[in-house]
Amino acid sequence: VPTEFKEALPILQRIEKAGYEAYFVGGSVRDTLLNRPIHDVDIATSAYPSEVKELFKRTVDTGIEHGTVMILDHGTGYEVTTFRTESGYQDYRRPDKVKFVRSLKEDLKRRDFTINALAMSESGQITDLFGGLADMKAKIIRAVGDPDERFNEDALRMMRAIRFASQLDFQIEAKTLVGIKRHSQLLEKIAVERTHTEFVKMMTGRDAENGLDLMVATDLYQHMPGLTSRQSQLQRMIQSHFKLINEVQVWSLLAFYFNFSSQEISQFLKSWKTANKIIDDVILTTELLFRMTADQVANWDLYRAGRQNVTNAVAILNTISPASFSAYLTDYQKLPITDKKQLKITGGQLIKAGILKPSPELGKVLNYLEKAVVQATVRNDEQALINATTSFINEDD
Ligand code: ATP
Ligand code: MG
After folding, report:
1. Signed CA dihedral, 191, 71, 99, 126: sign only
2. Which residue, 107, 136, 148, 293, could crosslink 83 as a Cys pair with Cβ 3.0–4.6 Å?
């Protein structure tokens, strides 16, 4: 039993002592049984939210209208959700109505896949109403109930199925897969942010090539931003044995295969509602991918991209290419400076020495010195930098 469960046991016990049922549910049960690390412990209970709140001193109403109360315990927050059924699925999205119920069975029935519909009691006993344990053993993702109905209720489940197939290295059961093919178009009803999260999780899963293959085979990719006409490039990617570990790597590899300019990257990623910081990093990493594969990397390119993006580019290329690109990591480490602040002279010093007056010229000089030091044409020491400044000014005149 993982420590996360042990630490949460007093919460289960407290709820049960008050006469209600309480179980660990969802991803944490699945991952524990699969011997995978767990990240959040979800608890389901027959107690209504108001009843849960009466039992604990410190609670937060994180999602009380959906039945979720967060219990704060020694610095950890535990989400406790009342057993519920869902109804009123409009527009193929999440339900707008939830109904609280007292039966675990009803709660497990609304869950997406059999391996996600397991509950574990305080004593470690598993409730398995839909064959989740057998599916886990056979490495199968299977919808709970009728796949057509379930994907009609919430189209995001199609993305989740493929995401789990990738993360767990599981197969999608035949009828569930047919259901995805049949309903792929419904993905367009889903908020891009939710599709985004699942797509990145899928692409960073351990069997992501299979995941991407499934997205093409089911036509789901046709209903994601900017991928509609990209079948042949995706197909080549699937053959490439890529392994990715973060979001910047995911988008950079796509941009590389799509041969995108910075402008195109920006447009593509905005359509996915990607954070601006990620977009900046993807542009820098992708540029390195093009330069590294063309053997056209200058020190300035490495410097501008920064350590994290150099690491990303090297990591990507090392997985898709038989050659090693790790030498670029050493090149980066050997840069004379990695930040403008490391210049051995400041604007203030140049003014004090009477070489320059405060003016726009000063910024230009410092940019010039930065580039010259990175390219190793000027040494990074005070006298060399002053000499370089003087000749730069004279040349400019
Ligand atoms: P992760 O490891 O990514 O957290 P997870 O299975 O825990 O995976 P969550 O989104 O945290 O995924 O959801 C917790 C549980 O809630 C799931 O295991 C599943 O039982 C249920 N669930 C989540 N999303 C859906 C959905 N769209 N439809 C039905 N059940 C869902
Ligand atoms: Mg979870």
Report:
1. positive
2. 107
